[in-house]
Amino acid sequence: MALNVVMLGPPGAGKGTQAERLAAARGIPKVSTGDILRDAVARATPLGQVARAAMDAGQLVGDDIVIALVTERLAQPDALPGFVLDGFPRTVTQAEALDNLMRGRGPLTVLHVVVPLEELVRRVSSRMVCERCGRNRPPDLAPESRCPADGGRWVQRADDAADVVRERLRVFERQTRPLVEHYRQRGWLWEIDGNRPPDEVTRAIARTVDLAATHGRAGEAVPTRGRA
Ligand code: AMP
Is residue 168 lining ligand 1, measured as CB closer than 6 Å? Predict the structure, then answer.
């Protein structure tokens, strides 16, 4: 059966890292709307030019744009056995569009990664990414080192600046948090305690995804702290 996963959580929850690990472990693509949009901005494509102002301000890019991006991406053959969505959906309108896209494609498993606010702010303000490929700097590499993949320098993401982060967290609370209820009602929501070392989170996610697969659509919201 296809493994269709959504990673839900605020900026700094570790969604990107965990989505990448899960996708690699299961041989399915990670689809990050943030990565697709950042790439478009870097290449100054028409999409990038439209998206840039909203991203720089910590606001969301329009629903129509991101829904079109995801619709096209999930239709590609490599996504048919499944995918890990990182950063989409972020609004109820996007979640409804995804519900429609999923008809006939098997259930969704939604992982809600929970991290306390102070820890989110701490993580995002110390986050550095590769200027070329956007990969996060591993904690064991110094800020002056270079990206092991392509030799790029580590830089702060423009939208990780303190005032923009505060706005992104507000946007999460207002526009994305309602999705927790959307998915809880459908029985697809699984809570993951993201406030622990990344390898532990990875293991909890692997266990939860396997548990969700055996439960099929009957997944209940199971707090994984001390369980998974
Ligand atoms: P992320 O890397 O997921 O934190 O996304 C970075 C920025 O890209 C966000 O702050 C938004 O401006 C934009 N973005 C990414 N995904 C979406 C989405 N699903 N809907 C609207 N805007 C998005």
Answer: yes
